[in-house]
Inverse folding.
């Protein structure tokens, strides 16, 4: 005999409800299981650029890239989420964070492999001095995405 | 009488705790139940807007999430390949299927692995 644990939503009979939309929990269905979370920062030094470009009006654009690593050491690629807050605003964005202007852009993206999460910035803007910081919050689940 | 099932994190009293963030599980709050998941491996993107589809036939639009691996690194939805802004992808979902759409302006011709999750909750 197979046993299971199920909890129905109010108004539904747990003994007869089979539609998972009306269950709070059922041991027949997997869920995301939390592994860890944390925060980090990524600071870009605008004086360090790897290429330049010129907009149609003759102004110079600078291309930058930067990366921060978050080690998880799970041995497989986990389900994960990353949020980012550029220091110029008060809200967090779910990665990827993208801002695209007429001639400039800003991409902050997150990737994973079997050992770490890579949070990478690629941008092109008019800055060749100063720094800019991105505040990063991550959630890692134990679930193996298996690809 | 209403019953509930709850498990608190270490250090919290399950009989008195009320902050949902201090529970491992609490039947007062719904869970994101994964009702289906799967992989689509070694798919070849030969042209911009190439699309691969999984048919779920649920009859409603479910919440979904997916990852794509290109060249060894797994990408979140809407992301570009690591180090290559020319290749990117996004998922779209309706009441019968999930479609995974791949973009490439000048660097088409690459392989992807897809992992999708379908949750019970409608969008």
């Amino acid at each position: 005999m197979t046993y299971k644990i199920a909890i129905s939503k109010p108004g539904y009979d747990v003994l007869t409800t089979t539609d998972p939309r009306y269950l709070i929990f059922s041991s027949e269905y997997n869920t995301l299981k939390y592994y860890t979370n944390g925060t980090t920062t990524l600071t870009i030094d605008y004086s360090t650029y790897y290429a330049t470009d010129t907009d149609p009006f003759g102004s110079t654009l600078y291309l930058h890239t930067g990366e921060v690593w978050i080690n998880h050491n799970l041995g497989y690629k986990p389900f994960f989420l990353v949020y980012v807050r550029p220091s110029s605003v008060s809200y967090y964005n779910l990665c990827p964070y993208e801002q695209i202007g007429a001639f400039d852009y800003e991409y902050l993206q997150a990737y994973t492999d079997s050992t770490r999460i890579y949070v990478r910035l690629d941008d092109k803007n008019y800055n060749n001095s100063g720094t800019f910081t991105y505040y990063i919050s991550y959630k890692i689940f134990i679930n193996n995405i298996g690809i | 009488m209403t019953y509930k099932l709850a498990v608190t994190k270490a250090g919290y009293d399950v009989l008195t705790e009320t902050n949902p963030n201090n529970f491992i599980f609490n039947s007062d709050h719904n869970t994101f139940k994964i009702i289906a998941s799967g992989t689509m491996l070694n798919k070849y993107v030969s042209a911009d807007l190439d699309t691969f589809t999984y048919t779920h036939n649920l009859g409603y639009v479910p919440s979904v999430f997916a990852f794509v691996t290109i060249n060894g690194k797994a990408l979140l939805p809407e992301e570009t390949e690591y180090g290559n802004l020319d290749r990117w992808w996004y998922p779209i979902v309706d009441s019968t299927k999930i479609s995974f759409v791949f973009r490439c302006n000048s660097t088409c011709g690459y392989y992807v692995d897809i992992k999708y999750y379908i949750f019970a909750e409608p969008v």
In short: The two ends of chain B are 32 Å apart (CA to CA). Chain B has a mean pLDDT of 95.
